[in-house]
Write the structure tokens for this entry.
Amino acid sequence: MPGESDRTRQVREAQEPLLHRRRLDIEETQGTLISDSLDAILTAINDIEKTRRQLQEYLRKNPKFQHSLKPVPPTQDAPQIAVRMAEAAYKANVGPMATVAGALIDLAFEQMKEAGAKTAIIENGGEVVATSPRPVYAGIWAGPSPISGKIALKLSRFPVTVATSSASVSHAFTFGSADAATIVADNASLADAAATAVCNAVQGVDVEGSVREGLSTAEKIEGVKAAIVIRGRYIGSTGDVPEMVAVRGDISPTVRTAVYL
């Protein structure tokens, strides 16, 4: 966990049950899965592969769903992932593809729990979904901001989902200028969509004012529990924000949210 000495970590890890960790690397879907059950991890990876195939076939037949920057209703034959993407996109008023990373891990997370995992954590780029008998720390990478990599959210109420969108880190299309728009929400699909909407709202030369605008946008989205917006040296938050703790050392600049145990 952030801030602890190497010796403290060694003692803690020796006293805790073994956790399995696997890298997730399936085309654009890249992240980490952690669980006390290796079977649960393998089940989740298989689910992600299957769900990606279903979505790719659906997008081939429904290109508007892929390219629209506004909500698009699913067709009657839509797979479950498209249905969830459409629901989250509607709540946040963004295009369905803004929710795809979160929707993928929502479905995989459900499979992990059904497989009996007591600890189930999936990190997919800037999205995290987790349940655990002990706290999970989600560090926030905010690109060039001096705040970047310096804070983490201590997650202790489960299940929990966190998503981060960034104009300075991600290659995803955005209208905004937030270095990090981090959302805690009812599910990862919604957190992903809301993070995009909030990042889009952070615009203009008035940096402090743009942070406030992003937070105001978050407050209007049903199902959002908390939001943190970082732009440059400014940071603001709203809602029931998890405890923020300092991070010692560096988190990877290749992800927008890093998971610590």
Remarks:
- The first strand starts at residue 20 and ends at 26.
- Confidence is low (pLDDT under 50) at residues 252-257.
- Residues 6-260 form a domain with the T-fold fold (CATH 3.10.520.10).
- The CA atoms of residues 73 and 87 lie 8 Å apart.
